[in-house]
Amino acid sequence: MEDLFGQTASVKKESKNLFADVILPVPIPKWFTYRVPDEIQDKIGIGFRVIVQFGKKKILTGIVGKVHQKPPAQYVAKPIMDLLDDFPVVNALQIKFWNWMAGYYCCHIGEVMNAALPSGLKLSTESKVQLHPDFDLENPGIPIDDREWIILEALEKRDELSVEACEHLLESKSTHKIIKSLLLKRAILVYEQLKEKYTPKIETRIRLKNAYVENKEALEKLFETIAGKPKQEEVLLKYLQQVPVFHQPELNDKGLIKKSVTEGGCSPSSLLTLIKNGVFEEFKVTISRFEDRMVDHDRMGLSGFQEEALEAVKRQFESKQTVLLHGITGSGKTEIYIRLIREVMESGSQVLLLLPEIALTTHMVTRLQSVFGSQMGVYHSKYSDNERVEVWQGVLKGKYNFVVGVRSSIFLPFDSLGLIIVDEEHEPSYKQFDPAPRFHARDAAVMLAWLHQANALLGSATPAFESFHNAENGKYGYVFIDQRYGEAQLPKFHLADILQDKKKNLLKLDFTRLLREKIQEALNRQEQVLIFQNRRGYAPYISCDECGWIPQCEHCDVSLTYHQFGEELRCHYCGFKDKVPVSCHACGSQKLSSVGTGTERIEENLSLLFPEARIARMDLDTTRSKYGYQRLLEDFGAGNIDILVGTQMITKGLDFDKVTVVGIVDADRILYFPDFRSGERAFQQITQVAGRAGRRDKMGHVIIQTRKPDQLIFNQIIRGNYIDFYQQEIAERQRFFYPPFVKNIKITVKHKDRFVAEKTAKNLRNLLMDIQVKKIILGPEKGLVAKIKNQYIYELWAKLDRTGNAQTLFKQELVEKTVFLNSQKDFKGARIIVDVDPA
C-alpha cells in the first residue's frame, strides 16, 4: 500500500513473529519494542501511529520507527494495543531528521517527537476528548453502540472528559478502541490538556428552499403571500439580487452568509420569520481560517544587479547545496526569494521560507500573499492551535506547497522540499532555548535540505560568523549584493557623544542635541522616526538614594524592572510582580529613584520633548495580543504614528517609505555585554536598525548615541565594512578558541539546594574530563544569573575540536554520563541541561 508521500508504507508480512520499535513522546534515551498482533501485521509500517501501554498505567501514542522480527533481549514485549490510522502520519525522512536532531543536540528522540507533532496527533492518558462540533447527537446518521453512547451522553453534559474519566465511566482500562471508533465516526475530537481545543471555524448561511428555485410560479405566489409585509419582501429581494436563482441556480446551494443579509437595514426578525415559515433554510459550513487571496500578477521586475545576483545563486546551486546571499539592507533580497520560490514551485517541489520571529512575519506575509495567494501557508506560534492544525493538514494534503514560518515550521510534514530559504539567518531568535530539543533552526534547516536533496539559501545583510566562515572556506556558495534597490541611498551615520553633551548641559531626558534636532527636522517634513532601545520597561530598576537598596525578585537573583504603565515591579525571568514601594525596605527612606532607561521611559520622554508628535511603543508588553504587531505596523505604515519606539523587534525587515531618521539611544549597552558574540551582535543590530532609514529616494539619517565614539566598531559600521570587522573579530576567536573554530556545548546544572547544584556540577566535570577526545572544559561557575525560579544554577562549558569524531564521541559519552549521574542517589533531583551551539 502507498502512503500519502507516495512511498510503500507496508508490505504483506508472512511471518507472525513481528515486532515494532516505537518512538514515544517521553524523555528516555531509547525506542521501545512492542509485539505486532496478527490482525494488524498486514497494515503496519514505518510512520504509523499506534496506541501502546507504557509502564503499568500510562497509555501513549507512539510512532513506528522500524518493523522487524527480533524480540527484545531484556524484557517480554507487550503487544501494540491498536493501530490508529490507515496511512502513516510521518514519513521516513522526518524520522531520519528527528534522529539527527536528537543526536546532534544531545536530547532524546521522544522529546523531538513531542515538539514536532501537533497535539491532535497525540492520544494519551493525559489527553482530553470533546464532542465534535459537526456531530448531531439527535440524528447521528451512523450506528453508535451502547458503550459509545455512554461517552457521548457524558460529553453532552460536560465540555470535556479525560481519557482516565472515560475509563472510569466504562469501568474498563481499555477505552482506546472506543475512542478510536468515535474519532473515525467524527463524533469526538482529541486534544492535549495544555493545548487549546481544536474547533473548526463555522459559518452560518441561508439559502432559498428548492421548492422556490425549481418552480417559478411558487416564487411568484410567495411574493403575493408576503405582499403588505415590506420588511419580509425586502429580505427576499436582497437575497435574489445577490443570488439569481433562475439564471444561476447552482449559486443557491452556497447561499449567503446569514449576517450579510441583515446588514444595511434589513430586519433580522423578518429573516427569522421566513426561515420559520420554510422559505429559507439555515445551514452551517466549516470554512478555512485563512481567507483566499487574489494574486498580484503585475509586479515590478528585478533590477539589473538583482538579476545578476539571482543567476549567481543558481550557478552556485549547481555545485553547492547551501548558498549564503549577503545583501546590504534595502538591496531587495525578498524579490530574489520570490523568483526562486516561483521557479521551484513550478517544478513541482515544495518551498519553506523561515523568518526569525512574528514581527517580521507580519510584514513579509502581506508581500508574499500578494504573489502566491492561497498556495501559501503561514505557520507561527502566535497562531491559535486551530490555525496551526489547518496549516499542518494543508501541507499533508498538498494544499500548501509553500510555507512561511518561524523555527517550528521545520517540523511540518514536507515530502518533496526543493528549497529552504532562511531570511535574516544571523538572528539569535532562530535558537530554541526551552524545552528540548534546543536546536538552531538555521542549522537544522541546512540538514533538512540535505535529507531532501534540496537547496538551502541563507540571506542576511550581516551574516553570522559561522555562515560567513563556511562561505569563506568553500563549504557554502557565496553571492554578495552591494547596491540598494531603486533610487534608495544608504543612510548617513552620525555619532552623538553622550558624555560631551552631558558636560555642556545639552543632554535632555536621555537625548543628545543632535538626535533631538534630527527628530524635529523629520517631524517638520512630516516624515517618520524609529527609536531603538533594547530594553523594555520604564527603567531597569529602582534604587534608594540614601542606602542604595534595590528591590530584588523573590525567586531569582536579579533586580526587578520598573514598569510605570502598570505601576509595578516585574521580573523578566520568572514573571513575578510586586507593587512599587513607597519607601526603602532597608532604611525606610522615601527617596527612591528609577535608574536607567527602558522603552516605556523613552516613550514618555519623547512625549515631553515633542508634544505634537504621535508616539507609539513596540515591545513585548505592547504586542502580547495576537494581532498586536500587525495593528502597530499597519498604523505606522498608514502614517498614523510619527515616532515608533521599540526593542529589537523594529530592527528586522520593516520597510516603510517615510522613515528618514533612526535613533539608537544607548549603543554601549549592546556592545558591552559579557558574551563573546557581543561585538558581532552590536554590528548586526545597529546595521539592521540603520537599514530602516531612507529606503526610497530620501536620504536617511542614523544617530548613534554612545559614551565612546572612538570605538573602532562604530567606524566599521558607518563604512559598512563587514569584511574588516569580521577579519578583526575572527582572529580573536581563533586565538582564544571560540566558534567557528571549536564546537561549544553549554551544560547547566539546576537544583533548589545550592550545595547539591554545585556538587553535581563538580562531579559532572570530573566525568567529562575522562572523555578521551581533544577538548577544553571550563567551570563549573555560577550562572550569570545565579538563581532563577528558586533554582540555583551552575554552568560548565565544553570546547571541542571540530575535526574527526571528537564531537560525536563526546556527545555520546556526555549523554551517558548525565544519565548515570541522575541515577545516583545524591544527584537524583538535579536537572542537567545540555545546550549545543548556545546562542
Describe this structure in words.
- 34% of the residues lie in helices and 22% in strands.
- It is of the alpha/beta class and 839 residues long.
- The chain has 6 domains: 19-117, PriA, 3(prime) DNA-binding domain (GIY-YIG endonuclease); 210-278, no CATH class; 304-481, P-loop containing nucleotide triphosphate hydrolases (Rossmann fold), CATH 3.40.50; 492-535 and 602-721, P-loop containing nucleotide triphosphate hydrolases (Rossmann fold), CATH 3.40.50; 540-595, no CATH class; 742-836, Ribosomal protein S10 (Alpha-Beta Plaits), CATH 3.30.70.600.
- It has a 7-stranded parallel sheet, sandwiched between helices. The protein has a 6-stranded parallel sheet with strand order 19-29-28-20-27-26, sandwiched between helices.
- Strand 22 (561-563) and strand 23 form a beta hairpin.
- The protein is globular.
- The two termini are 44 Å apart.
- Zn(2+) 1 binds at residues 544, 547, 584, 587.
- Its EC number is 5.6.2.4.
- Keywords: ATP-binding, DNA replication, DNA-binding, Helicase, Hydrolase, Isomerase, Metal-binding, Nucleotide-binding, Primosome, Zinc.
